[in-house]
Amino acid sequence: MRRKIIFSLLFMTLTPVTSYSDELLEERVKKLERALISIEGKIDKLLAPVVSNSGGNTESNNKNNKPADVVYEPGLWMEFYKINLTNKNIPETVNGVSLGVIKDKNVSSLKYSSFRSDPSLEHYYRDYFGLLWNGNLEIRKSGNHILGIDLVIDSKPQFHSNCVSSMSLSGKQIVKASVGISYAHKKIVSDLKDFDLKEGLYPISVWLACRINGDIRFIDGRLEGVSTVIKHRGPDGKSIGPINSSRLVHRAN
């Protein structure tokens, strides 16, 4: 469905006297696709229930806010950002220019190396970059939910690593974790909060960026083991653990 919309928009923007190469057409299609994903995300936020911390109330005009004509698929959209830095600080939220969007179905662990599934992005892996996962979290039972992230560093030893990850729900940042400069071979930093949530879909996004020895670059595969794990415990859960990946979905049309 999205491709039909894109080509309709593309046709309306073309003029009879203009000649477009295959590369230019593909680039325009990608730009339109990214714009549509952005618009879909804003629509999802408008449809989403309100998020409140524990003890507050959540309200929704629709108990199960899935539009009848929208199809959802497992996984999240992963967007690759080239970061323009004015200093060496790692951006804590989305920063830079989007260079590509791919589907990531392996969302049990959001890996910093996920962009490698798109060969066209390999050219940029020595640039400054961050990754943003977007989609929806499905809450299947109203009540108190604990949500959070584990920032996992499991990389080659003997180098400085410095990473930051944050997660937003319904457009609001709810948790953030960062790892300072360390020689540790494996390190996990967590941030958790509890919320009263009603049954329905909630727009969710996760940002992840790192640096090595002062750079934010994917050098020599040394950041291959960096990832963010979304944690969850529902109203009936006994203990918190990695979220059931079937709860993370994205719009397919």
Give a quick summary of the entry.
This protein has 253 residues and is an alpha+beta fold. Helix content is 15%, strand content 41%. Strands 2, 3, 4, 6, 8, 9, 11 and 14 form an eight-stranded antiparallel sheet that branches. Strands 1, 5, 7, 10, 12 and 13 form a six-stranded antiparallel sheet that branches.
Structure write-up:
The protein contains two helices and 14 strands, in the order H-H-E-E-E-E-E-E-E-E-E-E-E-E-E-E. The protein starts with a helix and ends with a strand. The strands form two sheets. Strands 2, 3, 4, 6, 8, 9, 11 and 14 form an eight-stranded antiparallel sheet that branches. Strands 1, 5, 7, 10, 12 and 13 form a six-stranded antiparallel sheet that branches. The chain has helices at 2-13, 22-47; strands spanning 52-53, 72-74, 76-82, 97-104, 110-111, 129-139, 143-154, 161-169, 172-182, 186-197, 200-212, 226-233, 241-242, 248-251. Mean pLDDT is 76; it is low at 13-18 and 55-63. It has two domains: 2-47; 52-251, Jelly Rolls (Sandwich). The protein is globular, with a radius of gyration of 19 Å. Helix 1 packs across helix 2 (22-47). 30% of the residues are buried. It is α+β, with helices and mostly antiparallel strands and 253 residues long. Helix content is 15%, strand content 41%.
